[in-house]
Queue: 2 jobs
Job 1
Amino acid sequence: MNKKIPLRLKINIIIDNYGKPAFYIPFLTIGIISSIIFIRSCGVAGGLAGAVLGLFWGIIISRLAAPAVGHWLGDLFYAPREYLKTAPDIMSPLKGLIAREEYDEAIEKLNELLAEKPFSPEPSSMLVELYANELNDYLRAMEMVEDYFKQEKVYPFEENTAMLLLYADICQEHNYLKKAQSLLEQEVARKGYPEIKRKALATRLEAITL
């Protein structure tokens, strides 16, 4: 079953991936217009020189400016880049590091990803699991989950559910049930989660509060 991606995220992904070629157009247009002006004022030779120079500077400038401008427009009008999920091909090598027990390097790279995309659930969830399951540092794992959901804006990715359920497991094991109850209540009330994920959170919340 394919996961539905919100339209705002789809548009932002398109801008993030294809913004650079799109911004070639205005700069190349400037080159063409300048070439026409050169042809009218300097003849064919001047026009050819203007075309070459216009194309050259258009490509150079667009390659330098397009990513920044595209990202700025995407962040302004659509979902900011930090809300985009991390691509699976980026996460796979990190899973390999953890499997080889190269935890320090995995933590470093995951933190680098989170510095760029603090709302991305995949590196957050992987880092929490690493601390909880591999390093047995449940307090750090709990702190990371709490910090993630304390951010000003948290998009209700369905992957957040795994973090929340793991957090509930840790809290239950170490007698922090009130913490788990508070965070689960907050996220069950948050709009946007898929209904099946919301029910999973509500069921766990009910089990904790019995």
Note: Residues 85-209 form a domain with the Serine Threonine Protein Phosphatase 5, Tetratricopeptide repeat fold (CATH 1.25.40.10).
Job 2
Amino acid sequence: MTPSQITALVRTVPDFPASGVLFRDITPLIAHGRGLAATVSWLADRARDAGAEAIAGMEARGFIFGAAVAVELGLGFVPVRKPGKLPVPTIGIDYALEYGTDRLEIDPGAIAAGQRVVLVDDLIATGGTARAAAELLRMAGARVDRGVFVIDLPDLGGTGVLSAIGVEAQSLMAFPGH
């Protein structure tokens, strides 16, 4: 499938979760076998080009794409979790949201020192979660210099946030607005 055919599988839902927001819903994309396979292949090609030795995905939709990319490349998958979800001692990072803070955690034993880890997620908007994930993976000893995303909302500046910490962001598609 072409990138434009894959893009056509993303549904736009107006006024969700708040008035004025155009929500980009990937549900039709992940329900479309060929579209999902083509998306995973596109992401995997970029992760391979980056020299990925492991793939990390942020909860929750990053698990869908990240795990699939890891399988396609024959690599391990590192889940970047919300707090309290891992049964072992973790390391974590707090990060700012528009209204408040949130936290991400990982099992530090899932990363080898110096291992090149590529971030995978469904969407990059402001870049806050991706930045926190990259910083957390680096705290665990990973080299993180690439993030691959299905969707970019460039008006929200997330790729610039990642670029400022030395992480190149690549996206299959982009939509204007927020």
Note: The chain has one domain: 3-174.
